[in-house]
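Posting for a labmate who doesn't have an account.
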Amino acid sequence: MKVRWLVNENFPAPSVVVLRAAKHDVLAIAESHTGDDDSDVLALARKEGRWLVTFDRDYGELLFSRNYPPPPAVVLLRVPSYRPDEPAAWLEWLLSDQEKFLGNFTVFTGKTLRSRPLLHRIEM
Protein backbone atom coordinates (compact mmCIF):
# COMPACT_ATOMS: atom_id res chain seq x y z
CA MET A 1 0.00 0.00 0.00
CA LYS A 2 1.32 3.41 -0.91
CA VAL A 3 0.95 5.83 2.00
CA ARG A 4 -0.29 9.31 1.17
CA TRP A 5 0.93 11.86 3.73
CA LEU A 6 -0.72 15.02 5.01
CA VAL A 7 1.86 16.99 6.96
CA ASN A 8 0.65 19.67 9.32
CA GLU A 9 1.72 23.32 9.21
CA ASN A 10 4.47 22.72 11.75
CA PHE A 11 6.22 20.07 9.62
CA PRO A 12 9.54 21.41 8.28
CA ALA A 13 9.63 22.32 4.58
CA PRO A 14 13.06 20.69 4.01
CA SER A 15 11.54 17.34 5.01
CA VAL A 16 8.67 17.87 2.58
CA VAL A 17 11.24 18.41 -0.20
CA VAL A 18 13.12 15.22 0.78
CA LEU A 19 9.93 13.13 0.83
CA ARG A 20 8.76 14.43 -2.53
CA ALA A 21 12.19 13.81 -4.06
CA ALA A 22 11.78 10.20 -2.92
CA LYS A 23 8.44 10.11 -4.84
CA HIS A 24 6.14 10.26 -1.80
CA ASP A 25 2.69 11.80 -2.15
CA VAL A 26 2.82 14.67 0.37
CA LEU A 27 0.17 17.32 0.93
CA ALA A 28 1.65 20.10 3.07
CA ILE A 29 -0.85 22.23 4.98
CA ALA A 30 1.66 25.10 5.01
CA GLU A 31 1.48 25.25 1.21
CA SER A 32 -2.23 25.00 0.50
CA HIS A 33 -4.33 25.22 3.66
CA THR A 34 -2.45 27.66 5.90
CA GLY A 35 -4.47 28.71 8.91
CA ASP A 36 -7.01 25.86 8.74
CA ASP A 37 -8.39 24.71 12.08
CA ASP A 38 -7.13 21.38 13.39
CA SER A 39 -10.62 19.93 12.87
CA ASP A 40 -10.50 20.94 9.17
CA VAL A 41 -7.04 19.41 8.77
CA LEU A 42 -8.27 16.19 10.36
CA ALA A 43 -11.32 16.12 8.07
CA LEU A 44 -9.10 16.66 5.01
CA ALA A 45 -6.81 13.79 6.01
CA ARG A 46 -9.82 11.54 6.47
CA LYS A 47 -11.51 12.61 3.22
CA GLU A 48 -8.36 12.04 1.16
CA GLY A 49 -7.27 8.88 2.99
CA ARG A 50 -3.98 10.44 4.11
CA TRP A 51 -1.86 9.69 7.15
CA LEU A 52 -1.67 12.83 9.27
CA VAL A 53 1.78 13.80 10.57
CA THR A 54 2.05 16.57 13.16
CA PHE A 55 3.95 17.98 16.09
CA ASP A 56 0.63 19.22 17.57
CA ARG A 57 -0.83 17.27 20.52
CA ASP A 58 -4.30 18.76 20.00
CA TYR A 59 -5.17 16.00 17.54
CA GLY A 60 -5.26 13.46 20.37
CA GLU A 61 -7.89 15.61 22.08
CA LEU A 62 -10.00 15.81 18.91
CA LEU A 63 -9.80 12.08 18.23
CA PHE A 64 -10.06 10.58 21.71
CA SER A 65 -12.00 13.12 23.78
CA ARG A 66 -14.23 14.68 21.13
CA ASN A 67 -14.59 11.53 18.97
CA TYR A 68 -13.77 13.14 15.63
CA PRO A 69 -13.65 10.55 12.85
CA PRO A 70 -10.01 9.55 12.28
CA PRO A 71 -7.89 9.36 9.15
CA PRO A 72 -6.15 6.05 8.35
CA ALA A 73 -3.28 6.86 10.76
CA VAL A 74 -1.88 9.71 12.83
CA VAL A 75 1.78 10.18 13.65
CA LEU A 76 2.53 12.64 16.45
CA LEU A 77 6.18 13.65 16.49
CA ARG A 78 7.34 14.58 20.00
CA VAL A 79 11.05 15.12 19.39
CA PRO A 80 12.46 18.12 21.28
CA SER A 81 15.36 18.91 18.96
CA TYR A 82 16.06 17.88 15.38
CA ARG A 83 17.46 19.02 12.05
CA PRO A 84 14.80 20.18 9.53
CA ASP A 85 15.43 17.21 7.24
CA GLU A 86 15.20 14.54 9.97
CA PRO A 87 11.39 14.12 10.05
CA ALA A 88 11.54 12.82 6.47
CA ALA A 89 13.89 10.02 7.60
CA TRP A 90 11.57 9.18 10.49
CA LEU A 91 8.62 8.77 8.12
CA GLU A 92 10.71 6.62 5.77
CA TRP A 93 11.58 4.42 8.75
CA LEU A 94 7.91 4.13 9.75
CA LEU A 95 7.08 2.87 6.27
CA SER A 96 9.29 -0.17 6.82
CA ASP A 97 6.46 -1.59 8.95
CA GLN A 98 3.44 0.46 7.88
CA GLU A 99 0.85 -2.15 8.87
CA LYS A 100 1.93 -1.59 12.47
CA PHE A 101 0.88 2.08 12.24
CA LEU A 102 -2.25 1.84 10.08
CA GLY A 103 -5.34 2.44 12.23
CA ASN A 104 -3.28 3.83 15.09
CA PHE A 105 -2.37 7.10 16.75
CA THR A 106 1.39 6.74 17.08
CA VAL A 107 3.67 8.94 19.17
CA PHE A 108 7.31 9.02 18.09
CA THR A 109 9.80 10.57 20.53
CA GLY A 110 12.97 9.93 18.57
CA LYS A 111 13.78 7.01 20.85
CA THR A 112 10.45 5.32 21.52
CA LEU A 113 7.16 4.58 19.82
CA ARG A 114 3.76 4.35 21.49
CA SER A 115 0.63 3.42 19.58
CA ARG A 116 -3.01 3.54 20.48
CA PRO A 117 -5.79 2.26 18.21
CA LEU A 118 -7.90 4.94 16.59
CA LEU A 119 -11.54 4.55 17.45
CA HIS A 120 -13.62 4.40 14.28
CA ARG A 121 -17.06 5.85 14.84
CA ILE A 122 -19.89 3.96 13.18
CA GLU A 123 -21.77 6.24 10.80
CA MET A 124 -25.55 6.01 11.21
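Reply:
Got it, the C-alpha coordinates are right above this. Strands lie at 4-7, 25-28, 51-54, 74-77, 104-108, 113-117.
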